Amino acid sequence: RSVIGTSSLRRAAQLKKKFPQLEFRDIRGNLNTRLKKLDEKEDFSAIILAAAGLKRMGWENRIGQLLSPEDCLYAVGQGALAVEVRAKDQEILNMVSALHDADTVLRCIAERAFMKRLEGGCSVPVAVNTMLKDGQLYLTGAVYSLDGSDSLKETMQTSVNYPQQNEDGPNDDVQHVGITAKNVPGQAQEAAENLGVELATLLLSKGAKHILSVARQLNDAR
């Protein structure tokens, strides 16, 4: 049967569930190395890579199929760029605040809050998808067993349609799951964080902790 190469537990778990007839094997290395393994060895029928990296390298012709969110959710914060600065350094915070993309800030806060509440990490298959539309933030989150046979997936939404207020003073450097965004309404950031926490709490109430515990133990035993 066809063998698919991926270095991601999260991708393998999701795709095993959707395509049980395929075999998934670990593949490592940078883009060049992985593509070379695909081309020169007969081990893999296809490999799964982030499309952004291929596009950045000008290798879009190597993309055979793009996976939709229905096929494969992404990792928390995947593709987002952040600038790390000293906490409470107002001068630098003011300087970098010009770089903020409000949609990305809110999506990342929700995703990171979801992961934090689940106590997930890169050693367990936790996946998300976020979307902002008409002032509503939608968060889909899921957890999977390593073989994809056991999973929980839910979607929740919240309004983030709040005006920017003058928030100078003691709360002007409030962090939400490690993110400080001075030019994004504080109420919207709080709503995004609450959304992530609430979705994770819902999954935990349905048994997510057990799925993640088993996945972590199996992965550690590899």
From TrEMBL:
Q: Which UniProt keywords apply?
A: Porphyrin biosynthesis, Transferase
Q: Which cofactor does it need?
A: dipyrromethane
Going by the record, the broad EC class of this enzyme is transferase
By its UniProt entry, which InterPro entries does this protein fall under? HemC (IPR000860), Porphobilin_deaminase_cofac_BS (IPR022419), Porphobilin_deaminase_N (IPR022417), Porphobilinogen_deaminase_C (IPR022418), Porphobilinogen_deaminase_C_sf (IPR036803)
This entry's Gene Ontology molecular function terms read: hydroxymethylbilane synthase activity
Reported EC number(s) for this entry are: 2.5.1.61
Q: Which domain of life is it from?
A: Eukaryota
A GO biological-process term: protoporphyrinogen IX biosynthetic process
**Porphobilinogen deaminase C-terminal domain mapped to chain residues:** 106-166
Porphobilinogen deaminase N-terminal domain location is 2-93
Pathway of action = Porphyrin-containing compound metabolism; protoporphyrin-IX biosynthesis; coproporphyrinogen-III from 5-aminolevulinate: step 2/4
**CC annotations in GO:** cytoplasm
NCBIfam families in UniProt: hemC (TIGR00212)
**Family to which the UniProt record says this protein belongs:** Belongs to the HMBS family.
According to UniProt, the name of this protein is hydroxymethylbilane synthase
Q: Which organism is it from?
A: Spheniscus mendiculus
